[in-house]
Amino acid sequence: MPDPSPPVLLITGASSGIGAATARAARAAGWRVALAARSHDRLTQLADELGGEDSALALRCDVTEWEDQQRMVADTLAAFGAIDAAFANAGFGGPRGFLKDTTEHWREMILTNVYGAALTIRATVPALTDSRGHLLITSSVAGRRVLPGSLYSCTKHAVTAMGEAARQDLNGTGVRVTLIEPGMVDTPFFDNKPQDALRDDDIAAAVMYALAQPPTVDVNEILIRPIAQDG
Ligand SMILES: NC(=O)c1ccc[n+]([C@@H]2O[C@H](COP(=O)([O-])OP(=O)(O)OC[C@H]3O[C@@H](n4cnc5c(N)ncnc54)[C@H](OP(=O)(O)O)[C@@H]3O)[C@@H](O)[C@H]2O)c1
Q1: Which of the residues 23, 123, 141, 203 has the least number of beta carbons within 10 Å of its own beta carbon?
Q2: What residues does 137 pair with on adjacent strands?
Q3: Does position 3 have pLDDT exceeding 80, yes or no?
Q4: Cα of 92 to ligand 1 centre, how many Å?
Q5: Would the CB of 12 count as within 6 Å of ligand 1?
């Protein structure tokens, strides 16, 4: 019997930070990866580093565009034949305060963090149902406790709710659902380097832990803070 094909993990927000670190960890564990984000150059560079088109695909996708998300899934299936896990991870934050930030930035953040994650679920669920696969979604500590004046925190509360809504919706299909809820992680998410933060690798390890469980075990949430974070 030939070896079964390596499993396939699709990641949005793969060009940087947590998504890129997860792609590296997944490749090291033998997964093939489909890397989606808007920065095609960075994705191509990462895909080359991870072994090229037999094992890593670079897919330009703006998660706020349904056509992009559909193409991302179709291209992954055409190249790899299946999607065993999808990590809806694309997102960004903004300044706290309801009189801060621009209304246009608010709109983009809500569309990316909430609508974009919902579109990724919608686009990937048929393939995940076929593979009896695994859906993972990046929420945040900010999706578990409200931060003052933070519309970002409100978007992540919506993402936390989306994870549980998807889990209930997919119950009985064999698809597992995991919410990843990081505290402060040292990534380009922040304009200024945070002190005493987690590393992007720490979150990648949490993702790989959830993925490595037996098919009958669904790790529903992983809330992970650096040791020094109080809030
Ligand atoms: N860093 C933290 O402390 C922290 C804590 C809790 C949760 N999180 C969450 O973790 C996730 C990853 O963030 P990170 O810390 O790794 O930050 P990051 O390094 O800035 O990565 C964000 C990723 O999202 C992608 N992205 C943004 N808008 C997009 C869009 N419209 N379409 C497709 N991709 C888009 C970016 O790629 P392009 O710009 O190339 O599109 C990038 O790959 C986010 O959901 C964030 O809210 C981060």
Answers
A1: 141
A2: 88, 179
A3: no
A4: 5
A5: yes
Q: For a substitution probing ligand 1, which of 104, 157, 187 has the most ligand atoms within 8 Å of its CB?
A: 187
Full-model pTM: 0.97
CA 15 to ligand 1: nearest atom: 43
pLDDT in tens, 190-206: 999 999 999 999 999 99
Residue having the nearest C-alpha atom to atom 36 of ligand 1? 13
The 3-state secondary structure of the chain, one letter per residue? CCCCCCCEEEEECCCCHHHHHHHHHHHHCCCEEEEEECCHHHHHHHHHHCCCCCCEEEEECCCCCHHHHHHHHHHHHHHHCCCCEEEECCCCCCCCCCCCCCHHHHHHHHHHHHHHHHHHHHHHHHHHHHHCCEEEEECCHHHCCCCCCCHHHHHHHHHHHHHHHHHHHHCCCCCEEEEEEECCECCCCCCCCCCCCECHHHHHHHHHHHHCCCCCCCCCEEEECCCCCCC
Maximum Cα–Cα distance across the chain: 63
CA pseudo-torsion sign 178, 24, 116, 156: positive
Query: Does residue 122 contact residue 165 with C-beta atoms inside 8 Å?
Result: no
CA–CA distance, 160 with 113 (Å, rounded to integer): 11
How do residues 65-106 score in pLDDT, each as one tens digit?
A: 999 999 999 999 999 999 999 999 999 999 999 999 999 999
Nearest CA to ligand 1 atom 46: 91
